[in-house]
Amino acid sequence: MRRLAMIAAAVCMVVWTVGAESVAKITSFEGNVSILKKGAADWRDAKPGSALEVGDQVYTREESFAEIRYAIGTVLRMDEKTKVTIEESSEKTIRTKSGLGSVWVNMRKLISSGKQFEVATPTAVAAIRGTVFDFSYTPDSATYVNVFEGKVAVGPSDSLKKQLDQEKKKEQKKETVKKEHIEVPGPEEIPGPYEVSLEQWLTIVAGQKISVRKDGKFAREKMDMAAVQKEKFVKKNLELDKELMKEKVK
Q: Chain-centre distance of CA 176, in angstroms?
C-alpha cells in the first residue's frame, strides 16, 4: 500500500461538544481539509470544531490529515488524499463510507451507546466495537483492513453482494447450458492466496489483515506488525493513540 510523506502544517485542536444534530466533529487537522455539506454545491474549508451530519463529506488534500470524533466516542483519522462520507446514523448503526485513501479507526474509548460503528468501501464493510484498525481503499478498487487490537467483522458491501449475486446467476445459466447443450470450460483457478468470494462475514483478529478485490475474492493473512508500524500513517496514529488513551471519557 502506498504511504506518502506528510508535511506538518498548522494544527487546529478543539474540545469535543455534541451538538443537537451533530453526528461527529472535526477535532484536529493539518494542511488543506475541505467539507461538502449535504445538499451544498461547493466545498468549504474545514474549521476547528466543524460539525458533521449525515450526508456530509470530508476530503484531505495532498500532505494533509484530519481527525474526526463521533458522538459515540469513536475516533477516525484520515490520511492525505482521502475522502469519507457520514452515510448513516440510526438507533443501531453509524456508518461512514470511505473513498480512495486510508483511515485509522480507534474504538477503545467507545461510549456505551448500543450502536455499531461501520466503515464501508464499494467492496467491503468493517463492523467493529472496541478495537483499533487501519482501513484503505485503493485505485484498483481493492479494500485492505489491518487489525491492531481487538477484532473486526468484515463482510461484502451492498454493491459487492449485488455483483456476486449476478455472477452466481450467470454461472447457473452456464451450468444449465453445459448440461443441456454444450460443454462449457470450468472455472479458472484463483491465483495467489486469494480464496473464494467474500459472501459472508469474517472475523479478523489482532495481528491479521484481509484484502478484498473488486471481484470479491479475498485473502486473509498474518500481518507483519513490525514492518507495518514503520509506515508513516500508522506510526503517526500509534503516537496519537497514546495521547488519546490519557484523556478521560466525557
A: 39
For residue 248, what is the DSSP state?
Answer: P
Cα-based torsion angle of the residue sequence 13, 55, 61, 159 in order, rounded to the nearest 10 degrees:
130
Residue with cell 470524533: 69
- pTM of model > 0.90: no
Q: Assign domain 12-153+224-244 to its CATH architecture.
A: Sandwich (2.60)
The three-class DSSP label of residue 216 is coil
Cell 500509534 maps to which residue? 238
Exposure pattern of 12-49 as b/e (b: 16+ CB <10 Å)? Answer: bebeeeeeeebbbbbbbbbbbbbbbbeeeeeeeebeeb
Contact 218, 197 (CB under 8 A): yes
pLDDT on residue 4:
27
**Cell numbers given for 201:** 462475514
- Answer yes or no: are the C-beta atoms of 245 and 108 closer than 8 Å: yes
Alpha-helix runs per DSSP H in the chain: 158-180, 225-228, 232-244
Specify the residue for cell string 486473509. 220
Under the banding of pLDDT at 50, 70 and 90, the label for residue 200 is confident
Alpha-carbon separation of residue 9 from 4, 30, 59 (angstroms) = 15, 5, 16
Do 148 and 202 form a contact (C-beta atoms < 8 A)? no
Beta bridge partners, 70, equal 24
